């Protein structure tokens, strides 16, 4: 049989359903691949070999017993270490949760299990999902399979790299400001941020609760849609979960794959095609726009003037929420505890624990957020940022009166060399310039590979109105049908 690790999730599921490959064989092939390449890529923080093989065996038994299987049964999935996995280490890329094994599964993880997918393990990430390169992981960086000296994006660099390195056909990410889409773009993979509230946050370690959105990562648009369908939908355990069914993203991806976009109006965000992006990125983007037009889409330019203020607004809102959310890591309830020698006060133990357990970027965000929320500065910073958020939402609403979806490059640059931006937080933050507005608005966004620049992948972003996730899948699948997928050099 040809290499199982090179197949799409759709192909693997068909093989398993048809009895041509067992879930155990599929799982073993991916575990072998991880063993062969992950010392160089470091996509995984934890590989759950026994758990994966046990889940695969159970699935094979269900199939043998004639049970009806879901569309992704038997397909391996890598899960970002931001989601709680029962009995399996969950660190959020931080030392403060080292050794923590949650007593429960996140809703998404539970849905993955019920769907018969096989969880391979937990993927590397910037600590608490704060970062754009996975270099802020407390457990060492992940390397981009396209060029091991470059970053795989962040914060979900582990999930994206696992896909690009053929260690997993599917992965889960979380997107607060771009952490699914930006890693997708720089690794030549597909990453979708669903509508906020369209996927459950129950069991997702919180960074910025009004922005955090878990979502699917894959090597093809259809695979991402299938995964989206499995994990999405209402969850009574999450108070911000939308009580509506997931739009039919799978049908939309299939429709898009026919390559016909007649009647679809796409708006290029004027503010994102100026001098903000590298020339090579712009060339790939422009060529893709031509390809979309050839498929029948009508292309116009749409101005969204407030998007220019999205980055500063985000860097007040996200740190503010994180300063509150991360207060729970006090050395008392879970994870690390430092200095509890019987002589120190509770307060001393808490500060020693937080001093030791949090890395520099997390501390920077907590300080920023605490400052922005402090009395006297609240109105000037946090309050002002919330007003900007409202204006950004209005720009989106106005834009979607003119067009069905907005498009832009996903990121201003291709994967940058490791170490290039760690000394300058602002340069690191700029990686999410084009993805952040979507989070502030709450709508869905997808990154789909659209070309190469200097031999490195470039992503095109499609943004749609809230609960119109199907639209972005249609456009992304159409583009994929025109430009194809991109394969990194052999590792
Ligand atoms: N890079 C952005 C940040 O550092 C977004 C992170 C994310 O989406 N989790 O906050």
From TrEMBL:
Domain Amidase positions: 25-471
EC numbers for this chain: 6.3.5.7
Classification via InterPro entries: Amidase, Amidase_CS, Amidase_dom, AS_sf, GatA
EC category name: ligase
Domain of life, source organism: Bacteria
UniProt keyword annotations, A-Z: ATP-binding, Ligase, Nucleotide-binding, Protein biosynthesis
Keyword Mitochondrion: no
Gene3D superfamilies recorded: Amidase signature (AS) domain
Catalyzed reactions: L-glutamyl-tRNA(Gln) + L-glutamine + ATP + H2O = L-glutaminyl-tRNA(Gln) + L-glutamate + ADP + phosphate + H(+)
A family per Pfam: Amidase
SUPFAM superfamilies named in the record: Amidase signature (AS) enzymes
Active-site positions on this chain: 80 (charge relay system), 155 (charge relay system), 179 (acyl-ester intermediate)
Family label: Belongs to the amidase family. GatA subfamily.
HAMAP family, A to Z: GatA
Subunit structure and binding partners: Heterotrimer of A, B and C subunits.
Function: Allows the formation of correctly charged Gln-tRNA(Gln) through the transamidation of misacylated Glu-tRNA(Gln) in organisms which lack glutaminyl-tRNA synthetase. The reaction takes place in the presence of glutamine and ATP through an activated gamma-phospho-Glu-tRNA(Gln).
Record's protein name: Glutamyl-tRNA(Gln) amidotransferase subunit A
Organism listed in the record: Micromonospora vulcania
The organism's taxonomic lineage, starting at the top: Bacteria, Bacillati, Actinomycetota, Actinomycetes, Micromonosporales
Gene this chain is encoded by: gatA
């Amino acid at each position: 049989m040809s290499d199982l690790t090179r197949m799409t999730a759709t192909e693997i599921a068909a093989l398993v359903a048809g009895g041509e490959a067992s879930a155990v064989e599929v799982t073993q092939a991916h575990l072998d691949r991880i063993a062969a390449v992950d010392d160089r890529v470091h996509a995984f923080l934890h590989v759950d070999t026994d758990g994966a093989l046990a889940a695969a065996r159970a699935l094979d038994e269900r199939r043998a017993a004639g049970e009806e299987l879901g569309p992704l049964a038997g397909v391996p999935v890598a899960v970002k270490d931001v989601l709680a996995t029962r009995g399996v280490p969950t660190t959020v890329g931080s030392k403060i949760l080292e050794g923590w094994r949650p007593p429960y599964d996140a809703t998404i993880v539970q849905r993955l299990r019920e769907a018969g997918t096989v969880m391979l393990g937990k993927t590397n990430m910037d600590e608490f999902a704060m970062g754009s390169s996975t270099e802020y992981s407390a457990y060492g960086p992940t390397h981009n399979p396209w060029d091991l000296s470059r970053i795989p994006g962040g914060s979900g660099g582990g999930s994206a790299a696992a896909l690009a390195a053929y260690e997993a056909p599917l992965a889960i990410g979380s997107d607060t400001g771009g952490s699914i889409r930006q890693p997708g773009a720089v690794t030549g993979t597909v990453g979708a941020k669903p509508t906020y509230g369209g996927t459950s946050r129950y069991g997702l370690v919180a960074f910025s609760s009004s922005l955090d959105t878990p979502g699917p990562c894959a090597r093809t648009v259809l695979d991402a849609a299938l995964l989206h369908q499995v994990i999405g939908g209402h969850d009574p355990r999450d108070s911000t979960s939308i009580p509506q069914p997931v739009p039919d993203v799978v049908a939309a991806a299939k429709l898009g794959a026919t390559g016909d976009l007649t009647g679809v109006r796409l708006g290029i965000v004027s503010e994102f095609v100026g001098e903000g992006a590298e020339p090579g990125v712009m060339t790939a983007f422009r060529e893709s726009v031509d390809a979309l037009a050839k498929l029948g889409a009508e292309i116009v330019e749409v101005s969204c003037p407030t998007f220019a203020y999205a980055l500063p607004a985000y860097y007040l809102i996200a740190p503010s929420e994180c300063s509150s959310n991360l207060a729970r890591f006090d050395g008392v309830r879970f994870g690390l505890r430092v200095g509890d020698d019987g002589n120190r006060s509770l307060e001393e133990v808490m500060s020693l624990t937080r001093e030791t357990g949090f890395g520099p970027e997390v501390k920077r965000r907590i300080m920023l957020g605490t400052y922005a929320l402090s009395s006297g500065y609240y109105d000037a910073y946090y309050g002002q940022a919330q007003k900007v958020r409202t204006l950004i939402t209005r720009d989106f609403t106005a834009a979607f009166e003119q067009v069905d979806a907005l498009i832009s490059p996903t990121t201003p640059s291709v994967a940058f060399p490791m170490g290039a931006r760690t000394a300058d937080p602002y340069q690191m933050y700029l990686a999410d310039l084009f993805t952040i507005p979507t989070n502030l608005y709450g709508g869905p966004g997808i990154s789909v590979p659209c070309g190469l620049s200097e031999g490195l992948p470039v992503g095109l972003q499609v943004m749609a109105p809230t609960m119109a996730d199907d639209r972005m899948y249609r456009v992304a699948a159409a583009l994929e049908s025109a430009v194809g997928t991109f394969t990194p050099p052999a590792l």
